[in-house]
Description:
10 helices, binds zinc ion, alpha/beta, 7 strands, 13% strand, Rossmann fold, seven-stranded mixed sheet
Amino acid sequence: MPPSPRLLVLTAHPDDPEVYAGGLICGYRSLGREVKLVSVTDGGAGHQEKTAAELAPLRRAEAAAAGAVVGASYEVWEFPDGRLLPTLEVRERIIREIRAFRADLVLTHRTCDYHPDHRAVAQAVQDASYLVTVPAVVTETPALRRGPVVAYLPDLFERPAPLRADRVIDVTPHLDTIVRMLTCHASQVFEWLPYQANTLDTVPTVPEERLPWVKEWFVEQIRPWANRYRDAMVAAFGESDGQATDLVEIFEISEYGRQPNAALLDELFPLSIDPMTR
Length: 278
Ligand SMILES: [Zn+2]
């Protein structure tokens, strides 16, 4: 039997993996599959008061705690937050990572994302997608005979093209676990993000109110994906379930990685974690 697929999530910031792919991450782990989450930057720019020197170690610890919730390794690299460029150094680090982890599926941002760090990671992953199979590049880590499937994380940006819904996953069964992961990023969900959204005065002070508060925030964050991709959901889940489901993740397969057939797509985005699919 072939080994179980391995998922590598390459994002710009600690907390991006959960926000954009928490459901798929939880689904993989619930099937006992290996998952590795990577933040290419140190997250040091994500606070209104703390300096990068104060914040970066804190975010590394928050990420480790979030990974522990699902038993996934969660690495935070040292590139400075808010200053990432798709340099050779970043590209080659990503090539090494994809090879060493033996990823079958790599998830990343799109190059038309709003955040320059997201765009830089996206570009570097695109640049690495083919080169992971070239032995003469990054010679100290053996090249892969076959590169991974690369897929883009959900977003709502429309120029030059909206995300194509190649795969739709119902994440409702994993909502509570995603929220537990997100809650580990306390410097973000209770401090920086509410500061940016001008909602700091609504952050609960009572510990037992914090988890439900994050859940409500997260549901509001991802509900627009379902509203935008309703047609794809109806196609995937059928009319009544497609209309009723509000919590989904949507993925587009990159042209630059391995091109999966239908059977491989089903394996990489397994139906067993998608109870609404018929
Ligand atoms: Zn980010």
